[in-house]
Here is the input.
Amino acid sequence: MPVVETFNLTKKYGKLTAVENLNISIDEGEVFGLLGPNGAGKTTIIKMLATLLEPTSGTAKVNGFDVLAQPEKVRESIGIIFQEPSSDELLTGYENIKLYAMMYGIPKAQISSGIREALELVELSDRKDDLVKHYSGGMRRRLEIARSLIHKPKVLFLDEPTLGLDPRGREKMWNYIVRLVKELKMTVLLTTHYMEEADSLANRIGIIDRGKIVVLDSPRALKKSLGGDLVTIRGAETSRVDELRKLGFVRDIKQDGSETRISVEDVGENLQQILKVAGKIDSVEVRNTTLNDVFLRWAGRTIEDEGESGWFEKIVQESVEKA
Amino acid sequence: MNWAGVYAIWQREMLTFFREKPRIVSAVANPILWLLAFGGGLGSSVVIPGVEDYSQYIFAGILMQTFLFSSIFYGAYLVWDRRIDLLKAILVTPLSRSSIFLGKVLGGVTFSLVEAAIILVFGVVIGIHYTVLSVFLTLLMVAVAAAGLTAVGLTIGSFMTSPEGFQLITTFVIFPLFFLSGALYPLGDLNIYLATLSGINPLSYIVDVLRSILIGLQYFGTLENIIIIVSFTLIANIIGIQAFKRMRA
Here is the structure.
C-alpha cells in the first residue's frame, strides 16, 4: 500500500496555478525527492499533505487517511520539518521537544525516555538543557528532526532540510536522514533544490517545474535516459546542427542560442565524428551527465535560473505591490 | 478539548514570558509612570466631584490600561509566530485549533494577572486601601476581562499579515477605546456623542467595575457591569475561535 498518494492534487491562487493535477504515489520505506527551483510548488504540496493548506481540487491520502476527511488522523501520523527554523529560541532543546510530546498526547511515562532516544539519534544529548538561541543552524535542524520523531510518525516530510546549512552541516544532515530510513524504516518525502541532495538521498525523484511533475524516475534512470554524456558546442552553423541530428548515436539535441547541447551514448567513441560533422565551431565542452542536465532537459533551463525567489513568489510579490 | 495540549501551549507561553524580563519591566514601568507623572501632575489642578485624590481616581483606569495593552499585543504577537514557522509546527500537531486558542488565552490571562498584581502592590504607594476580598475580586475581574481582550488580540493577529500593523492597532483600536472608557475622567458629564461612544465601549464597564471594587466609586450598575463584561469575553472568544479555525497557516 502506498504511504502517500495524491489524486489530481491542485492548488490555485486566483488565476495562478501553484500545483496542477499532481498524481504521485510513494511506497513504504521509500525516500522520494521533489526536485525543483524555488517557487515550483514543492512547499505547497507539502503543506497540502500536512493539512495546513486546503487543495483547490483533488485530494491526497497519507497513511491511508484522506487529508480532507480525516485531517487529525493525518497529522497524528506525520512528522514534518519546515524550511524555516520552527523551534522556540527561549526554550531549551529538551523543553521544545517535551511541549510537542504533550501536544501529541504522548503519555507522561513515555515522554522522557522518548526524548532521550530522539536526542541521542541526532547527537544533541549533551546540549539538551541549553537554550535553542545558543544552537547553531545545523543543531536547530537536528533538534527539529528529533522533535518530529517524538510521536513515531510513519512518514516524514522534509521541506528543504539543508537550506542555509554549510557544506559540513549539510553532509551531517544527509547522514541522519539515511539513518532514519535505515533504522526506523521511515518513509520520507523530501523537497530540495540541491541536485546532489536529491541524487544522494532519493530512491526516486520527481522533477517539478511550475507546479507540474515533468519527469519521475530513479536518479540513475533519469541520468541514463539522457543518453549518458553531454557534448556542448558553441557557434555551429544551423545546417551542420541538422546534420548532427541524423547521426545514429546522437540521442537528443537542444539548441539554446548559439549553444548546441548534444546527448551522446558514448562520447569517447564518437566525439571525433561529432566534431567532424559540426565543422567550424567556437568551442566544445564534454561532460558526463548529472541531474543538472536532467533538469535542464526537462525544465528547459537550469535550476538556478530563477534566483533566490521563484517565479511564483515573484508574481505574487508583484501583484501585492500593485494592489 | 485536549487538556494536556492546552497545558503545553500555556506552559510554553509561561516559559518564554518569564525569560523575557524586559517585557515585564516595560509592561509595569509604563503604568507607574502614568500614575506618578500624569496622575500627580494633572491631579494638582483637576478637581473631580466626590474624589479626593486624582491618582486614586485613575488607578482603576491605569490598571485596565496595563492589561489592555499587554493582552491585545500578546494576541496580535501571533503574527510574529506565523511569520516564522513556529506556529506552523504547532498547527501540524493533532491539537485542535480551539485547544491552541484556549492555551493562548490562558497564557494572556496569566500575564495580565502577574502585571495586575504588581500594579496593585504599587497602589499602596498612592494610598489605595485593600481588603482580602477587594484584591480577590479585582484579580477575578482582571482575569475575565483579560480573557476577552486577549481573544480580541488573537483575532487581530490571525488576520494580520505583518507586524507593521501594530502601530495601526494602537492608534485606531487601543487608544480610542482607552480614552473613551472613563479611565481618566468621569463619564457623567460627557456630551451625547462621547457618552454614546463610551456606553458601547466594553472597556468603560471594566474600568467601572474595577473602580467600584477599589475605591467604591461607580457609574453603571454592578449587575450591568458584570453582564456586559462576561458577555464581551464570551463573544470575543467565540469570534476568536472561528477566526483561528479559518486562519491560514
